[in-house]
Design goal:
binds zinc ion, alpha/beta, 16 helices, 40% helix
Length: 445
């Protein structure tokens, strides 16, 4: 099925579909592919680029890919920036490119059940493509994920297991289920087909636009950046481009964490080292933005350009504004990837429009409060129940803040000590790890 068998980057052992080497656990890479001349490609769906993709006896497709590129016209601060509308894929996100391959692979391997961990759009896409392929699906997600996401998975007939606080908890459970029952494992950062599917974004871009000097991509756990770089490598190998554009990765701003935290060995997202190397190689950089700027940018895009995207997808617009401001990129030859549809985050907009409490994308209202509390304690901005309540704007009862603190302490995420009269809170090692995971994953998955 592979045009070029995946290889371990370190020991060069040939691999099947895992993103980590079965022998030495290093990164697995599909060798760069030299495709046909660009004039030979007639873009219809992602599968028009099949010469760059593994082949399957029965490809499962819902007409993914070939998403349009349009230019901003009515928001002067973005100039005439190009937007790649990845939210126009069948289930509203770029993940459909990955799941088309992943589910085709599961069918080829004659699996009956497919299991995957995610925090949203990957799981929705998994459920839809599995429905088309008549596979049983188990989506494993963290507890407190937004209902609108869980309901979409269920509408496509997927079973949903809610477990733990973060994506990593869900990932472990999915792994356990898959190995115990010989199910197909579709978790995004363990399966290399995810990268191969998503790389078609940049192959398409090269065919759609004459000159690209910079591309702005949400970072998340790194798989989208890695995929886009991979697509450009294939395009370069095929003689479609000479130089790979600068790649800019967008992530959420980190609050200042005390040096206690820096000394802790915090687990990094899966592809973070690779992402750093890609940014360095292409002369791009990482741009940090504030979470609340995303929703403002998303709503402006809806009002001025008629495009309805997820708040997290608007992170690239906030970053584009910063880059244009500093003259680091030129709008006319830069592209921002709009990764997900606003329809996948309807309840966040509903809360916003009705003046309810702000909600961080990807988290329920309860988890959002816990996330905010952890950030305050980590930055030592507020360490007492009362001061946390004040810092959060007194929008909920003091009692409910104490309830959250008790729950966090019961889970070993924070620890309290009694000073004079008050209880002072600090994060435990597990707390810092949890916060770091939440920051890295709120995101863009
Ligand atoms: Zn190896």
């Amino acid at each position: 099925m592979w045009k070029q068998q995946p290889l371990c980057t370190e020991c060069h052992k040939e691999q099947e579909s895992s993103l980590r080497c079965s022998k030495c656990n290093n990164l697995v890479f599909v060798p760069t592919i030299q495709g046909p001349h660009s004039s030979k490609i007639n873009l219809d769906t992602m599968w028009s680029l099949s010469e760059f993709l593994p082949s399957f006896t029965k490809p499962i497709s819902l007409f993914e890919g070939n998403t349009p590129v349009i230019k901003v016209e009515n928001i002067p601060k973005y100039g005439n920036l190009s937007l790649k509308l990845e939210f126009r894929n069948p289930t509203g996100s770029f993940r459909d490119r990955a799941l088309s391959l992943v589910v085709s692979d599961a069918i080829q391997k004659k699996k009956k059940t497919i299991v995957g961990a995610s925090t949203g759009s990957f799981g929705i896409s998994l459920a839809a493509y599995s429905a088309k392929a008549n596979l049983e699906t188990i989506n494993v997600v963290p507890q407190n994920l937004e209902l609108s996401k869980i309901e979409q998975m269920k509408i496509f007939g997927s079973k949903v297991i809610e477990i733990g606080d973060t994506y990593y908890d869900a990932k472990l459970k999915a792994q356990e289920l898959a190995s115990k029952s010989d199910h197909y494992l579709a978790t995004p950062d363990v399966n290399i087909l995810t990268i191969e599917g998503q790389k078609t974004i940049s192959l398409e871009l090269v065919l759609q636009l004459k000159n690209i000097t910079a591309i702005i991509v949400p970072r998340g756990a790194g798989s989208l950046i890695f995929s886009i770089f991979k697509g450009f490598l294939d395009a370069q190998e095929s003689g479609w481009i000479e130089k790979i554009p600068e790649i800019y990765a967008v992530s959420l701003e980190k609050s200042k964490v005390s040096h206690l935290a820096e000394s802790l060995n915090i687990e990094k997202p899966f592809l973070l080292e690779e992402v750093k190397e890609i940014l360095h190689k292409t002369k791009g950089s990482e741009i940090e933005i504030k979470a609340d700027e995303m929703i403002t940018a998303a709503m402006l895009l809806a009002k001025k350009e008629g495009l309805f995207i997820e708040p997290a997808s608007a992170s690239v617009l906030v970053a584009a504004e910063q880059l244009l401001d500093k003259n680091k990129i030129s709008a006319s030859s830069s592209v921002a990837i709009l990764s997900g549809s606003g329809f996948n985050a309807l309840n966040i907009y509903a809360a916003q429009m009705r003046g309810k409490k702000k909600v961080v994308w990807g988290l329920s209202e309860n988890s959002t409060t816990k996330f905010e509390i952890l950030n305050l304690i980590a930055a030592a901005k507020a360490v007492y129940g009362y001061s946390i309540w004040v810092s959060l704007g007194k929008v909920q009862s003091l009692q409910s803040i104490y309830q959250h603190l008790n729950e966090l302490e019961a889970r070993g995420i924070i620890i309290s000590s009694k000073t004079a009269k008050r209880k002072e809170f600090e994060l435990t090692t597990k707390g810092y790890e949890t916060l770091e995971k939440m920051r890295n994953l709120i995101d863009f998955i």
